Amino acid sequence: MDYRFSEEQSMLKDSLQGWLGRNYQFDQWRRLIARKPPHSEENWKSFASMGWLGITIPEAHGGLGFGAIDQMIIGEAFGSHLVTEPYLSSIVFGSNLILEAGTEVQKAEWLPRIAEGTARLAFAFAEKQSRFSLNTVATHAQKTSNGYTISGEKILVLDAPSADKLIVLARTGGDTTDKTGLSLFLVDPKNPGVSIRAYSTVDDRQAADIIFDNVVAEALIGSEGDALLAVEAVTDRAIAYLCAEGVGAMQALIEATLAYVKVRKQFGQAIGDFQIIQHRIVDLRVQLECSRAMTLYAAVSATADANERARAASAAKVQVGRSARIVGRNAIQLHGGIGMTNELSIGHYFKRLLMVETMLGDIDFHQKRFASLPSELA
Amino acid sequence: MDYRFSEEQSMLKDSLQGWLGRNYQFDQWRRLIARKPPHSEENWKSFASMGWLGITIPEAHGGLGFGAIDQMIIGEAFGSHLVTEPYLSSIVFGSNLILEAGTEVQKAEWLPRIAEGTARLAFAFAEKQSRFSLNTVATHAQKTSNGYTISGEKILVLDAPSADKLIVLARTGGDTTDKTGLSLFLVDPKNPGVSIRAYSTVDDRQAADIIFDNVVAEALIGSEGDALLAVEAVTDRAIAYLCAEGVGAMQALIEATLAYVKVRKQFGQAIGDFQIIQHRIVDLRVQLECSRAMTLYAAVSATADANERARAASAAKVQVGRSARIVGRNAIQLHGGIGMTNELSIGHYFKRLLMVETMLGDIDFHQKRFASLPSELA
Amino acid sequence: MDLALSAEDKAFRQEVRAFIRENLPADIADTARRMFHTHPEDMLRWTKILHQKGWSAPSWPKKYGGTGWSAVQRYIFDEEYCMADGPLPLMAGHGVTMVGPVIYTFGSDEQKARYLPRILTGDDYWCQGFSEPGSGSDLASLKTRAVVDGDEYIINGQKIWTSLAHNANMIFCLARTDTTVKPQQGISFLVFPVDTPGITIRPIISIDRGHSLNETFFENVRVPRSSLVGEEGKGWTYAKFLLGHERFTIAEIARSKRRLQRLRQIARETPVGQGTLLDDPSFQEKATAIEIDLVMLEQMGLRIAWEMDQGIDNMLSASILKLRGSQIIQAVTELSIEAMGYSGLAYESLQDGSMFSPSAPDIAQGKMEEFLFLRAATIYGGSTETQQNILAKMIYAGA
Amino acid sequence: MDLALSAEDKAFRQEVRAFIRENLPADIADTARRMFHTHPEDMLRWTKILHQKGWSAPSWPKKYGGTGWSAVQRYIFDEEYCMADGPLPLMAGHGVTMVGPVIYTFGSDEQKARYLPRILTGDDYWCQGFSEPGSGSDLASLKTRAVVDGDEYIINGQKIWTSLAHNANMIFCLARTDTTVKPQQGISFLVFPVDTPGITIRPIISIDRGHSLNETFFENVRVPRSSLVGEEGKGWTYAKFLLGHERFTIAEIARSKRRLQRLRQIARETPVGQGTLLDDPSFQEKATAIEIDLVMLEQMGLRIAWEMDQGIDNMLSASILKLRGSQIIQAVTELSIEAMGYSGLAYESLQDGSMFSPSAPDIAQGKMEEFLFLRAATIYGGSTETQQNILAKMIYAGA
Asked: What is the similarity comment for this entry (chains A, B) (predicted)?
């Protein structure tokens, strides 16, 4: 048992802090989200040069070959600066899906390009009726003489408008909610039959609803019909990453709120001197620490057996979701009216936390998933 | 629309306050519960002479002919002094069940005796597997040549050890959870085949688990098979009464707590001066006012149509249950260690509120019942 | 004790329902469903319709062109209004609910004649200048000065959170006219046109990305001394009179009932696997808990309305109503976006200023905007913490 | 970073499990299930068994007869102990967990030789005299005086909440030996026999109707000056040392895990109509929420244990652990009695001092007593409010 970061991990942390401190102050962020897409090519190149894009990609494929803990460290740092680059889409999902499900040839083809920042992926999995279930998939892929054609509708494909390729979860067999018969496909978004309805998300990023109408897939990723295992494993890892973003965002929000209540005066004194404000700050900090403990657990469990991995991911997602609500809502409340303006960072952290709470399954979903898994306390 | 109490109601309130103030101080209460049964024959006579026992019994049968509001007024006063006499069992259930379900002959026979305090009833309805459902009844009554014999097991029959007669809810037809086929019987607890296992309840009162083994019933109350309607109507009324007890108990508890925090000193000042204590007192008072509004609604709706009556009763029970938790638990917390002792009234109110929360259906049960009823907001 | 509505009140409900059904323009109701704030031109159109019926000022006495309704009737009206998706704010700007009552209670005859009719017709659109950057809950610390200069006041200072000031042509505000007395005593209540020279309005974009809030700057703004309503130095009293009134309204009992109805409709139209979200027991439980809270809020509100009609001023209950009402507003808006799941995260600005989520059902459009904007429900009108302070004082004093 | 238990720790777990399975007397485990406090004679019997194995003082260094286990091993031991329904308190009175560490850290060699062995064997049963009627959370305000008179202290004053004093033969307490200095500095730590003349113990019956608490009165109690542990005036420091230690233990991570297991068992044995309570989705949801909280608590606790082994003193985390741990204790005990429904309301005293509910399943016996007694979990060991005050100070200072 050892809770220490390795030397590489400590260095990673330092380099993140250094780079973000220089390039990702709130005013820089504001300029970034005014663009379309709301992130920067240059930043992406920096990420690549620092090795962050290839963090879990094996060294043989041009990456650093690190693990989920390192991804968690990146998530926390990115969350604390509201980083908008498509890291979750392209790296946490994209590179890990190919790593987990792809053939050796596909890994060799795509992983180096992902690591060097020249190929960006987006992952199309959710559908209108799926809510948060990964295996509720109506989109289907028809086998043809020379490949597959895909038909169906996906919603909320994060970062799709700026992706080079889409990874699409589609059904090659079974009924809409079956756990088998699912496959992953690489699809070129410029292919005929792909209609992309792009929009802004509540946290000022980009996503799209996508209709696939007999779209020829570029490739089947890995083998047919057994994609769910890989998708679940990668999603649990993505949950750990997203929870880490939540932890980073909450920490930044609590720090900003504490700083504010120490200077904001009402009735002749700093509002931070009021005992109820002090205890509220404590409540938020307690939430942060609880979320931090659970996020670490989820990250460490990314390589555990499937049951432990799923329990840890779902428990963490519930905790972070609950905490995000408490921290986000109270940060605005403690700021009062000024917390309601888009000019301050507060509301933006709040909206990012809303996204963190909902993406990859909300509190209710993960509580039910957790309950469905075997437990020693049952 | 008129929220004023009538003159009679105001007088009733005054007389309750006066009598309880003289006869039901906490030290008097402590002496009372040391007895077996933990209440007093003399008090019961006083209740009778003041008309409280016959509050809803028609004047023709020796009562006052008042309604559910008046019963609510009594409940609130009794709750604030932790009155232990078997009022809920014998009057709210006993007299109202006979009034609602009994034949004219039965009314004439029993109501005057109940009103004058010479007959005390207890109501045996709950069973092990029924949880809070009124129609989950396995106890059955077999028709014989000259009446009925009853077999089955009832639990938590409040005040059974001191009751002259039992009213037993038993099945004359249908399956265990059917809504029809239920009948009410008057049973003499001294009859052969009745085994009474008496015990103390958590709030220092008395109840019993009772086994009926081919017990000859004294009478069928009213007609056979349709008792559920009457039982539901009377139970909703009893819920309003019990909620009123809860309101009375919460008010007394909050007053005692406020008085305590104003004098108890820590760190050189009254703990009531701390802002978090002040806001906690506010939270409790808010709960009280919410419960008060709902209790009034339940009492007023006692004579409304069955849907409105049930909605009001269940909503009130949920609110009072939630409030009772918050008020009870925080009253102990704000008292600190001293609130944990049986010497103070605080713990006794806490335990009474626990009883109020659970009896006649807990928060969860009534939330589900409420959800099952038609709503204009569905 | 009789809590049933009288036959008259029941008939009144039918009348209101029929009138709104027949006269509320469908496009306005539609916009009101999708957008938190109604366009000023729609508001004017709708106010004219109500005015024609004599209903444009539900809370005013008949004498001043109001309806003369009892508080209970106003509650009934509000319920029918909200259930039909009538636009918010009820009337143009803060004229009817805020400045009107101050003018007819404390204003001069000339002010009454000049301002009240144009509020009733909707031709004057009023905004409110109370809060300042340094004084939110602590209103008495406001710094905007109004100095007498001959027949005029010269006003200097800054206001914040001036809702819809960019739509308004009139403003009422609090300014300090005397710095030598206690903070509460030196404040006066002034009314003047928004286009008076020296006034600058700067938009504040709120977290919902909408523009309803503003900062308002006064730089040597000269207004005639007739702009003073009531007595000089009594502005604090008038403001408290207003804010007390407001607590009932901003608890939004009826509107939250409508929100709950819509929430269940969203769940009904939200597919989950083979069924819908409405079938989910956890969702049901959360919605039921809110409905029970609303039953409570309504019972409390009806009693306060009746007490108002009896001339009883129950400050404790009004404060509790605001406190609980705002919590319930947030509970129901929160559950609404929870119900939307992924579809609620799409948040696109349309031409008309509304926000749109492509994969969400129609009934859910506007819900994210509402959720975001109403984070302020526990801040405005006396924050939750302020209400708790007020309540603590009352309760410790024996209320 | 590697959070898995080492192979040694896993082997250790098996050893502990086997030992407890084979050696914990069934009747003692049975009583521990049904009663909150174990009879002193049972406790002595069990302590002797543990002592024979060398495990009667898990937290002590080997040097003083303890196990020398790491904090992580202690956590593993505690988990196995709780899952097997080992009796509470872990060891006789407060000897092992409280006074022992003070004696071996600050006491004289003579005190070590005299007191430690009898704690290990269970022959001395210690109680704690810290709190006084006027000083709960504000311990520094204590008033009990100890005045030097030749070779003796004369003690006068009153203690409250002296747990199990009626079972104890030894007491350790704080008394003021100097009134001329700051309140925290004039306090000393004294140990002496409970049968010293002048000591009166009066039972306090708690709301569970049980007797575990007492008031202890000192009237001219004369004890030798050798009763002083460590330096005169340093008692406050020693007490803080103890209370810091205690925070980990009283979070009761492992015990709450066992409580949750029992809760589900109660639900499984609680018939509802044709099924059981365990089938009810609302019940499941509440139990799951608690389980998730316990996962969190355990993760936090393991980290703190590891930090303790590294010599890192994480006061912030320890405070949070106590705060959340006590809330979780109350959540699980509350849901346990909720699960019992009507059967939990029956509450009868049996001969052996346990409480009995006739219609409840065996597994649920004792749950109401536990629920009632553990209302104190957010009061003792530094109340929730006190933890929040402490945490606020740390966080504002930059922790």
From this structure: Belongs to the acyl-CoA dehydrogenase family.
Chains touching chain B through at least 3 C-beta pairs below 8 angstroms are: A, C, D
Whether D168 is covered by a domain: the verdict is: yes
Could you tell me the two tokens for C262?
């819509």
Spatial contact of B299 and B71, defined as CB atoms under 8 Å apart: yes
Q: How many domains is chain B built from?
A: 3
Q: Assess if residue B1 is contained within a domain.
A: no
Decide if D96 is inside a domain.
no
| A286 contacts D323? CB cut-off 8 A | yes
What string of DSSP letters covers B229-252?
HHHHHHHHHHHHHHHHHHHHHHHH
Residue of B nearest to D280 (CA): B364
Residue A1 lies in a domain: no
- Neighbouring chains of A at 3+ CB pairs within 8 Å? B, C, D
* Residue A34, Cβ density class (10 Å: 0-12 exposed, 13-18 middle, ≥19 buried): exposed
Domain boundary among the residues A53, A84, A119 is at A119
Same-domain status, A36 and A115: yes
Q: Do C391 and B286 touch (CB under 8 A)?
A: yes
Contacting B with CB below 8 Å, chain A residues are 274-276, 279
Task: Quote the domain boundaries for residue D47.
Answer: 7-89
Catalytic site includes residue C110: no
Radius of gyration of chain C (CA): 22
- For B376, the closest chain C residue by CA position comes to C261
Angle at C335 between CA C330 and CA C339, to 5 degrees: 155
Kindly report whether the peptide bond that precedes residue B37 is cis, defined as omega within 30 degrees of 0. Answer: yes
* CATH number, residue B42: 1.10.540.10
Residue with tokens 């007389």: B15
Helices of type H across chain A: 7-23, 26-33, 41-49, 68-80, 87, 96-101, 104-116, 227-263, 275-300, 306-335, 345-358, 363-372
Distance separating the N- and C-terminal Cα atoms of chain B: 26
Shared domain for A13 and A111, answered yes or no, is yes
Mutate which of B3, B10, B257, B326 to disrupt the C interface (most C C-beta within 10 Å)?
A: B3
| Residue D344 with chain B: CB contacts under 8 Å | 202, 358
C244 within domain boundaries = no
Q: Which CATH number characterizes residue A271's domain? A: 1.20.140.10
Question: In this structure, are D264 and D227 located in the same domain?
Answer: no
D345 and D381 share a domain?
yes
Give the closest-approach CA distance of B133 to chain A in angstroms: 27
Whether residues B106 and B130 share a domain: the answer is: no
CA-to-CA distance for D325 and D331, rounded, in angstroms?
10
Closest residue on chain C to B320 (Cα): C296
Q: What are the distances in angstroms from CA B198 to CA B121, B157, D67, D350, D362?
A: 16, 9, 49, 13, 19
Note whether residue A171 is domain-resident: yes
Domain enclosing residue A261, as ranges:
229-372
Structure tokens at B223: 């007609």
- Which of C266, C342, C375 has the most A C-beta neighbours within 10 Å, making it the best mutation to test the interface with A? C342
Cα–Cα distance, C128 to C121 (Å, whole number) = 19
In order along its 399 residues, chain C shows pLDDT tens digits of: 888 899 999 999 999 999 999 999 999 999 999 998 888 999 999 999 999 999 999 999 999 999 999 999 999 999 999 999 999 765 446 889 899 999 999 999 999 999 999 999 999 999 999 999 987 777 888 999 999 999 999 999 999 999 999 999 999 999 999 999 998 899 999 999 999 999 999 999 999 999 999 999 999 999 999 999 999 999 999 998 887 777 788 899 999 999 999 999 999 999 998 899 999 999 999 999 999 999 999 999 999 999 999 999 899 999 999 999 999 999 999 999 999 999 999 999 999 889 999 999 999 999 999 999 999 999 998 899 999 999 999 999 999
Terminus-to-terminus CA distance in chain C, angstroms?
23
- As given in the structure block, the two tokens for residue D248 are 């980990």
